[in-house]
């Protein structure tokens, strides 16, 4: 994964991809509407990771450093949640290889929006209860 840029002004976020893989989203200042998503190909026992590119897509806005996201790896789609500046405007972006849909919520809500994964394999469900 070539990250030769300074990360200070770039959007970057880490998320789960599968049970044992991580996903990194980057949006770099040299082309701020391009979204690059990388997935761990291998994680060594000493913590060294190798990455492979999962998705490159175009967005209609630059994401902030505080956004979070989920991936649908079967359909190659991301769902990103972002809040901009001091306003209470929240944006939900659905981004794929050939699509970018944005939903905007403006209002006085002080809620914090977070996307989280539910991993059913971590929960034991008793059958026949």
How would you describe what is shown here?
With 129 residues, the chain is mainly β. It has one domain (11-122). The chain is 0% helix and 47% strand. The protein is built from no helices and 8 strands. The protein has strands at 11-18, 21-27, 34-43, 49-58, 68-72, 77-83, 90-96, 99-105. The strands form 2 sheets. It has a 4-stranded antiparallel β-sheet, with no helix packed on it. A hairpin with a 5-residue loop joins strand 3 and strand 4. The N and C termini lie far apart (48 Å). The model has no long low-confidence stretch (mean pLDDT 76).
How would you summarize what this structure contains?
The chain has 129 residues and is mainly beta. The protein contains no helices and 8 strands. The chain has a 4-stranded antiparallel sheet with strand order 1-2-3-4, with no helix packed on it.
């Amino acid at each position: 994964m070539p990250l030769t840029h300074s990360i200070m002004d770039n959007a970057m976020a880490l998320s789960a991809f599968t049970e044992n893989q991580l996903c990194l989203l980057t949006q770099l200042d040299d082309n701020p509407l391009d979204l690059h998503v990388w997935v761990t190909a291998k994680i060594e026992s000493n913590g060294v990771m190798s990455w492979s590119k999962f998705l490159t897509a175009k967005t209609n806005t630059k994401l902030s450093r505080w956004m979070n996201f989920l991936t649908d790896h079967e359909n190659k789609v991301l769902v990103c949640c972002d809040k901009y500046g001091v306003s209470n405007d929240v944006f939900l972006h659905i981004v794929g290889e050939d699509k970018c849909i944005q939903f905007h919520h403006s209002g006085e809500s002080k809620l914090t929006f977070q996307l989280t994964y539910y991993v059913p394999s971590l929960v034991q469900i008793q059958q026949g209860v």
